[in-house]
Write a structure and sequence with these properties.
The structure holds two protein chains of two kinds.
Chain A: H1 3-24, H2 26-29, H3 31-51, H4 53-62, H5 69-95, H6 99-102, H7 112-135, H8 137-147
Chain B: H1 2-29, E1 37-39, E2 45-47, H2 55-81
Antiparallel strand pairs in B: 1-2
Helix pairs in contact in B: 1-2
Classes of the chains: A mainly alpha, B mainly alpha.
């Protein structure tokens, strides 16, 4: 991977981590920022997926064939993360008070059923995001060292 | 192997307790005073949004959340490296 591309991917991933953490703590941002940040996150998630498209396409092609179990597990974990993110965003849009009204939709803010789905799916996002980071831990540390100019201690 | 497992469990407990603890404490104090409900003479109930608490509590919950995700990832990484 080219150094410039590593830098773009690293800062995008760091922004995603901070944005997801901010979204999990609604009192930190306030409801209006929470909802607009979530709407903006769609763009970041799409960029993240587009930058990883080579891996997604290759893994999808290899999925039916007999390949390493680790790759298949990684694929399904990433798919579960995407599913939980999409569920959280859709249910969040249904119960949203600011974005839905701004876009001319009727808000279902008082609907406890959708609120429960939103809260449970967001808990899954935390778990799957942590697993996603754990799987890509070595790459993340190496990229952080490069982008932040950190020395490893070994000359 | 048991010593390795014990060390891993202690590390995992400490990281989880610190990060999740910070998140929970931050969330508990960032909720602000309770919801106020006013009854109008017309019978319509007026709900007021619960105000936010102090900035420190809100920042603590955010930092706890970042720490929780990174901490869980670190624990997961350590677990994957354990050869049980």
């Amino acid at each position: 991977m080219k150094p410039q591309r590593i830098s773009v991917v690293f800062w995008l991933d760091a922004a995603l981590l901070l944005a997801f953490s901010a979204l999990e703590t609604v009192p930190f941002t306030g409801l209006a920022i929470h909802e607009w940040l979530a709407a903006g996150l769609i763009v970041l998630v799409l960029c993240h997926m587009l930058l990883s498209w080579t891996w997604i396409a290759a893994s999808s092609k290899r999925l039916p064939s007999r390949g390493p179990a680790r790759t298949k597990l990684n694929y399904f974990l990433n798919f579960a993360l995407l599913l939980s993110v999409v569920t959280t965003m859709l249910s969040g849009f249904v119960v949203s008070e600011v974005v839905a009204r701004a876009l001319g939709f009727q808000s279902q803010a008082g609907n406890n059923h959708w609120r429960l789905i939103h809260n449970q799916a967001s808990n899954f996002v935390v778990v799957f995001a942590a697993v996603h980071l754990a799987i890509n831990w070595d790459w993340s540390i190496a990229a952080a060292k490069k982008c932040l100019n950190l020395r490893t201690g070994q000359s | 192997m048991l010593r390795q497992l014990a060390r891993f469990l202690i590390l995992a407990s400490v990281i989880t307790a610190l990060t999740f603890g910070a998140y929970c404490v931050g969330e508990a104090f960032s909720a602000g005073p309770p919801l106020r409900i006013r009854n109008r003479p017309s019978g319509v109930r007026l709900y007021r949004r619960r105000p936010r608490g102090p900035q420190l509590a809100r920042t603590t919950s955010f930092a706890g959340e970042v720490g929780l995700i990174v901490g869980l990832a670190f624990i997961g990484r350590k677990f994957l490296k354990l050869r049980l």
